[in-house]
């Protein structure tokens, strides 16, 4: 079998080299995977293997160490939570209308105050779990940064580009691109209007490319298409106080310091933030008959310790050709041993009307779901010629082996739950005909 060398595992937990710009600083090494590591580079051409050992290391050469700050004190968490027992469990199919973005003329909301937890499971303390958040904001973070001590954020902008200043440099991330800010990396978000997006947070694992198995050397998300920032720094004293917000054990804390944390003059290593344009996804799919599992659309996965079982997969439904013969081409009706949270960046999802950009759906473990009645009827009799599917659209799924609980905000106080969702299947008819014969194969 072809040996594929394109697995990039940004694994491990680094410690920041956090002192003055000398080489005598701490670095971390973690022996984790048996895969070669590749480094996401600032340009698309020069992707290369950093080495063939199983290590994650990084050095940050900075002007002042992060330790020079006043003590952290608790602050309001708003709608951000890791309490999965706020409301009773709900096994129903759930669908949300587009989440409301506050108007800046009414209320200034930045990326942090605009975080709302929709659902999740597990726990940041035992380093095993997942949380799904929406961010809806209208104002840039000024003299304020965020760090997540609990896990990694995979950010999916849906409306409005976000300019993320990180300790490693700056990244502009537009809708149809995604980025990952790994555990502990400090960042600040600038926005340019009403802004909305989705966040998949994983505790205790990092995102990596899925193993390609029989696909071989290339396909799906290729390592060369991941981009990482170049070092950017400011040597800025902030006499009025710079605020560092720390998400720690599911709660928010803040502290003050008198300098910008974006004071990293240079960095080196393979534990970095990175971004990826979903247009670069090389789609693999059925070219004969039947409907492949959407795992073939996995962009990134956060593996659990159980082989083959993900804490969470980030899966997309990109524009593609549908060519399958003798096949009902849209998704099948199913119950899943995984939880499926779906969002829509743009366009229209093939299987359902009423699922709108900026909205979401959750089909929990073993909750039945599938195409709505119109999609079923239309595609049951459609002539199976080659057809473009999902042109101009981008839906995605956060698929998790965890049985997720929905928060009080998600079920109630966001006021976006579409209570009529179940009706889209009510008119499904019985078409069973025991005498039916296939006309031709
Ligand atoms: O439920 C969904 O819409 C997502 C999905 C799509 C698909 O093509 C097959 C299975 C699946 O869960
Ligand atoms: Fe599904």
Q: Tally the structural domains.
A: 2
Remind me, CATH topology of the largest domain?
Jelly Rolls
Number of strands: 28
Low-confidence stretches: 1-53
Please give the order of strands in the largest beta sheet. 16-20-12-9-14-7-6-28
Biggest β-sheet description: 8 strands, antiparallel
Annotated CATH homologous superfamily of the largest domain: Jelly Rolls
Give the terminus-to-terminus CA distance: 33 Å
Write the CATH architecture name of the largest domain.
Sandwich
Small molecules bound in the structure, each named once: 2-(3,6-dihydroxyphenyl)acetic acid, fe (ii) ion
Helical stretch tally: 2
Into which percent range does the helicity of residues fall?
under 10%
Q: Which oligomeric state applies? A: single chain
Categorize the overall geometry. globular
Please compute the radius of gyration using only Cα atoms. 23 Å
SSE ordering: EEEEEEEEEEEEEEEEEEEEEEEEEHEEEH
């Amino acid at each position: 079998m072809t040996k594929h060398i394109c697995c990039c595992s940004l694994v491990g937990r680094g410690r920041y080299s956090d002192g003055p710009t000398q080489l005598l600083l701490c670095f971390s090494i973690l022996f984790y995977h048996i895969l070669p590591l590749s480094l996401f580079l600032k340009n698309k051409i020069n992707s290369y293997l950093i080495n063939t050992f199983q290590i994650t290391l990084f050095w940050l050469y900075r002007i002042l160490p992060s330790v020079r700050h006043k003590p952290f004190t608790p602050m309001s968490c708003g709608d951000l939570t890791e309490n999965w027992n706020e409301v009773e469990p709900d096994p129903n199919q759930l669908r949300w209308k587009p989440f409301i973005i506050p108007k800046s003329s009414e209320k200034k909301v930045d990326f942090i105050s605009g975080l709302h937890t929709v659902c999740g499971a597990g726990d940041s303390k035992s380093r095993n779990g997942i949380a799904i958040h929406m961010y809806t904001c209208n104002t840039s973070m000024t003299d304020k940064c965020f760090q997540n001590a609990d896990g990694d954020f995979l950010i999916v902008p849906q409306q409005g580009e976000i300019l993320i200043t990180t300790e490693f440099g700056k990244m502009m991330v537009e809708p149809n691109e995604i980025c990952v800010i790994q555990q502990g990396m400090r960042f600040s978000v600038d926005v340019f209007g009403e802004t909305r997006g989705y966040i998949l947070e994983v505790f205790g694992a990092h995102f990596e490319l899925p193993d390609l198995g029989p696909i071989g050397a290339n396909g799906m998300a290729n390592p060369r298409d991941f981009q990482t920032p170049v070092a950017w720094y400011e040597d800025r004293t902030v006499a009025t106080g710079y605020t560092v917000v720390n998400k720690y054990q599911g709660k928010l804390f803040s502290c003050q310091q008198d300098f910008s944390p974006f004071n990293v003059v240079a960095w080196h290593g393979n534990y970095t933030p990175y971004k990826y344009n979903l247009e670069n996804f090389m789609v693999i799919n059925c070219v004969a008959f039947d409907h492949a599992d959407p795992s073939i659309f996995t962009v990134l996965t956060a593996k659990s310790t159980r082989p083959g079982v993900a804490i969470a997969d980030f899966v997309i439904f990109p524009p593609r050709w549908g060519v399958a013969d003798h096949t009902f081409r849209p998704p099948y009706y199913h119950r899943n041993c995984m939880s499926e949270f779906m969002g829509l960046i743009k366009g229209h999802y093939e299987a359902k009307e009423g699922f709108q950009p900026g909205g979401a759906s959750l089909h929990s473990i073993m909750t039945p779901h599938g195409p709505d009645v119109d999609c079923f009827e239309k595609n049951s009799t459609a002539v199976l010629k080659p057809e473009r599917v999902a042109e101009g659209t981008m839906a995605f799924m956060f698929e998790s082996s965890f049985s997720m609980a929905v928060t009080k905000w998600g079920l109630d106080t966001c006021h976006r739950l579409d209570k009529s969702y179940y009706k889209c299947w009510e008119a499904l008819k019985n078409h069973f005909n025991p005498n039916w014969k296939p006309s031709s194969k």
